[in-house]
Amino acid sequence: MKNFIHIKGISKHFGDFVAVNNVDLEIAQGELFSILGGSGCGKTTLLRMLAGFEMPTSGSIEIDGVDVTCQAPYDRPVNMMFQSYAIFPHMSVSRNISYGLRKDHIAKKEINKRVDEMLQLVQLSELKDRKPDQLSGGQRQRVALARALIKRPKVLLLDEPLAALDKKLREQTQFELINIQEELGITFVVVTHDQEEAMTLSDRIAVMDHGRFQHVGTPKEIYEFPHNRFVANFIGTINTFEGVVTVVDKDRISVYADEAGETLTALGRQLVDVGQQIEVAVRPEKIFIGKEKSGDSDDVCIEGVVDDLGYLGNRSLYRIRLASGKIVQVSSQNRRRSITRFLEWEDKVWISWKPQSAVVLLD
Q1: What are the strands of the beta sheet with 327-333, ordered from one edge?
Q2: Which domains does the chain have, with CATH numbers?
Q3: pTM reported for the whole predicted model
Q4: Cα distance between residue 291 and residue 283, in whole Å
Q5: How far is it, in rounded angstroms, from Cα 211 to Cα 49?
Q6: Do residues 54 and 48 make contact, with C-beta atoms less than 8 angstroms apart?
Q7: What is the DSSP string of 200-240?
Q8: Which of 2, 27, 314, 343 is most enclosed, with most CB atoms within 10 A?
Q9: pLDDT per residue over 346-357, tens digit each?
Q10: Rounded CA separation 16/18 (Å)
Q11: 27 has which bridge partners?
């Protein structure tokens, strides 16, 4: 896929406050790209600059080889779907979807043809005459999506598109959105604070904090190989151990961590030195838990006590208290049906993980 959107050195200042700080980004044609971050990180400001609703303080934006930095929103080959959906309550589904085409004075025959295509695409053909107050939240979301797509923009910008939906409907709609995007081949840029939503939807994700990108990559790259502590902690749950490097052997690093009471081994691609202070991190689902010590001599093994536990149906969560008092979170899949618990509070246990499951964090 060729690069379609080029963002070069974009910054946006509001007085002394820097909302977006010298950002560079390239998005491929037909990509479903998400900008992920917490409130106030600059993601919505960046989206509004792409749409033309905010002018950058510095930098440039190109879409399909055309510099659109100073273009008005209506001159850009983009459309935007707002978090609130902003559909007209007095219009039917069909009238809402066709609104942009009618404003552009497109021929009625062409309008009807495109509306029918969009209704089929978003599976609302049977509801075309209903008003918004007769629709569910998911159906209103699809009306807003169809209205944004009917003008055939080169880029669709989506601001927290699923935030108004409940969890189950949000999960279902995520896959509907993916299917629609793949069928149309339009470049989607999604802004969201929801990590799970970004991981499910995206070809690639940019994790944003304080106006800068901390990591840009595929969902798997960001989750399994985070660039820094912020990304590791922001995406999902992770256990970290501070320690001192004791051995560096090719791509294997040994780190003594007081809070673990053990030497931890990790596969580290970074250049580190003996005596350097670093963190070793491991995800809860990478950790095995049992009443017996692992028989694999290569495993990292630590003894602890069950401090707390929770049953979530498909998995159980354990909080394991080590001798130092540090709490380690472990996620274990419930593969067998049982009315009794495998572990109870205050049980003595061993936790273990493979060296390749650990991540070395330097900053």
Answers
A1: 288-290, 348-353, 300-311, 315-322, 327-333
A2: 3-233 (3.40.50.300), 237-361 (2.40.50.140)
A3: 0.88
A4: 20
A5: 13
A6: yes
A7: HH-SEEEEEETTEEEEEE-HHHHHHS-SSHHHHHHSS--EE
A8: 27
A9: 999 999 999 999
A10: 6
A11: 5
